[in-house]
Write a structure and sequence with these properties.
Two copies of one chain form a homodimer. By secondary structure, chain A is of the alpha/beta class. The first copy, chain A, contains twelve helices and nine strands. Chain A is globular, with a radius of gyration of 18 Å.
Amino acid sequence: MRRLHLSVAVLLITSPLINSFAQTKTIAERLGYPPDSKLLIIHADDLAVAHSEDAASFDALDKHAATSASIMVPCPWLNEVAAYAKQHPDADLGLHLTLTSEWKTYRWGPVESKDKVPSLLDPSGSFWPDTNQHNLKPEEVEREIRAQIELAASMGIHPTHLDSHMGVLFSRPDLFAVYVKVAHEYKLPFLAVRSADAPKELLAMLSDRDLILDSIVMADPKVDSSNWKAFYANAIKNLKPGVTEIIVHLGHDDAELQAVMVDHPDYGAAWRQRDYNVVTSPEFKKALQDNQVILIKWNDLKKLLN
Amino acid sequence: MRRLHLSVAVLLITSPLINSFAQTKTIAERLGYPPDSKLLIIHADDLAVAHSEDAASFDALDKHAATSASIMVPCPWLNEVAAYAKQHPDADLGLHLTLTSEWKTYRWGPVESKDKVPSLLDPSGSFWPDTNQHNLKPEEVEREIRAQIELAASMGIHPTHLDSHMGVLFSRPDLFAVYVKVAHEYKLPFLAVRSADAPKELLAMLSDRDLILDSIVMADPKVDSSNWKAFYANAIKNLKPGVTEIIVHLGHDDAELQAVMVDHPDYGAAWRQRDYNVVTSPEFKKALQDNQVILIKWNDLKKLLN
């Protein structure tokens, strides 16, 4: 069966109902911009998964080609990212809460003790490779994501936001409830996106102080590799007023990443090189300028919470 | 403090006493060779630590430039090695029992549940980075090395032998006792080397059926990089009758391995490239032939046990 790589597979969805509770000012206004501003977070997922991913993402952050990124705390290269975070206190780094280990040659497991989170583990003791849920127990999910946040903190990482690797925490109301509860407790903004058809049970979990994004853009396997630049150029051209996040996966198409992602061209090494090439290109920068896009970070949103 | 990388830091040492219990025939004779034969295992350590290490080691095994290798079961690339083992059932693969996580950017932890092996873990939940022992509890060491052996077996790896990453299991009598007990139980030969000055408490742990090697050769930081070929050429020239193991660390000097081993030239990426270059060179092959060296595998020794 084809593995799915769903960085934001099922995003939370809010209905107009939530707006009745919400702040009357838009996020743009609260940040001091005109109400029809097009605000954009350019977000690199999957830091710590591989050196190649880290190197490309750090480079994009350093060049301000990405404004924000999130870290997979259980992954082997966490120390490399923690060192970068210490050296770059202004880098906008969140936690990409991780409950899957999806590549076939290269695996990782929980931060928690394995016998405290057995429902999260495959028979080898790594996280499950897919998002088929496997009866993940919400109390074990909560234990594990708290352990990830605490480990990051102990290593000097001060996250600006939370999101969910492969969308696992968006996939069930009970897991979404854990995500929202923990984010509220740590006073961190979290990825959630406005939409018209939200299940009411999810809405009930949100507070009127939660900062809901207006849209998400992410390349998916339907985008042909020859159309990569055009896909992003169109996305920029079609940005609407409000807060959008473009989610990219940055890496170099090198021996390490090719081996991690072997036999999996979707979100594979060449894919990540294409994403890196686009976001660091002069054409992409010019498209942002031509379309009056205002780049923001998750930390801008975090300041609205505190 | 400088980290030590001691693949065979403190090898077990046996005294002439042990010989009085031993088989009257030498290993060479038991394998059907003349008693004065120079038998050699060319052994690649550290499989599964990184893709670069795996790629170089698999290549050397495929070319018969290395006769044997051992696997770090807790490391992220275990699945890559397990796939190789399945595709190469004759590959001579042992387990490099691992109780340290010594690189600063890139870490791994236990196979066992963390709460069952707390003395093995640093504050981040990875293995300790060094061999300073940190009051490792022998019962936790036993639990962890049994978990490593069982995980390897569950993934279709049938080990030919056991040895110890950075020599942790050779460093204390109580840990050595665990190593010997577990090896005996699994009927696996294990790395131990003959010497004249063995502590009697270690000798008491050995059986007269144990297969003791006569010497070990391994490059160390005293070998200048410009003398790499000469170091190995001399080692081959000076081989004595009996069983010797040359321990090498094979890798490519590429972005991944440079990042794993950053700031650590000893046993670093360039070091591993040099080892790879030597063992795969025509000169090395010729030196083996010129010196009438007989290449053997750990599986040859394993057959003597069963």
